[in-house]
Amino acid sequence: MADILTxxxxxxxxxxxFTFAVVATLATLGLFVVTLRADVARRPAPxxxxxxxxxxxxxxxxxxxxxxxxxxxxxxxxxxxxxxILRATAEATGAAAGRLVDGGREVSTVGSIPRSSRPLTLExxxxxxxxxxxxxxxxxxxxxxxxxxxxxxxxAQAAIAVENAxxxxxxxxxxxxxxxxxxxxRRRFMAALEHExxxxxxxxxxxxxxxxxxxxxxxxxxxxxxxGDALLQAFARALEQHVRDVDIAARLGGEEFAVLLxxxxxxxxxxxxxxxxxxxxRVPLIVRGGVEITATASLGVAxxxxxxxxxxxxxxxxxxxxxxxxxxxxxxxxxxxIRPGVRxxx
Length: 346
Hints:
Blueprint: H1 2-42, H2 45-54, H3 61-74, H4 78-93, E1 97-102, E2 105-111, E3 120-124, E4 132-137, H5 145-176, H6 186-199, E5 207-213, H7 216-223, H8 225-241, E6 248-253, E7 256-261, H9 266-282, E8 286-288, E9 291-293, E10 297-303, H10 310-326, E11 332-334
Parallel strand pairs: 10-11
Antiparallel strand pairs: 1-2, 1-4, 3-4, 5-7, 5-10, 6-7, 8-9
Helix pairs in contact: 1-3, 1-5, 3-4, 4-5, 7-8
């Protein structure tokens, strides 16, 4: 029960951070949009017409604002937001052209860059490993002071928006990923399993492998929890090496793992499980202080049958895993086959 409460608390914290990131991004870009609209309203019509000419097209700056909103609605990926922010800022300030450089690599341009023109250089919060710079090239008459101040302020707001989008992206990934191993977590795995069952072809439905490290508590007791964590990480890597790109490997909790194998029959899934079991038996997973630490796993394998749901499939695979443990561990056991068309009992 304590483990369940801990998991629920962790999920609640993740959801709180997730919500905060979304609200912060919306608020920042909302302010971004309001400011640009106010700037458009302040400018006289001739200035707006001149701004359209500097970017080589008849675009109203409010169309650029719509791009920001549409992009935010479609994605919180900072790299997708950056080009839209560049376009909106260039429109609002009357720039002749603009460039975005991320980590030394050009990622977006607008307009035709004038020759022998010094750009206004604005640093944004880095969404990647290197700094992100927005370069705005002035129109023929140059930027006036108001346009320069607006560009600097907008760049600061854009930097906040990009950082919030990055935070949103990170938290979203954490919500579906097991922090220790990098595999998907139980929540994401169950969603994928339900989706696969809903869309599957009954000609070749998916299969499921449940795996549990044998005597994992003894490793923790003898070597300590840091070594136990390293063993779990090594097992996750071994698991990934034995599955296809389309398969989904997950850590369900503790030392229990699962693999969803789309369009795979029972024998095909069993072959994967047997390869993994043999690999674990032959090669130490980690070496610490000159000590080779090996591990074995017990595995249960089941294939979805007609009219079966996720809970029943998991119960059959878990029952097979339990028999593997009871029969001496370090083995693969296939789940009992139920007749197609007969709904498993709950």
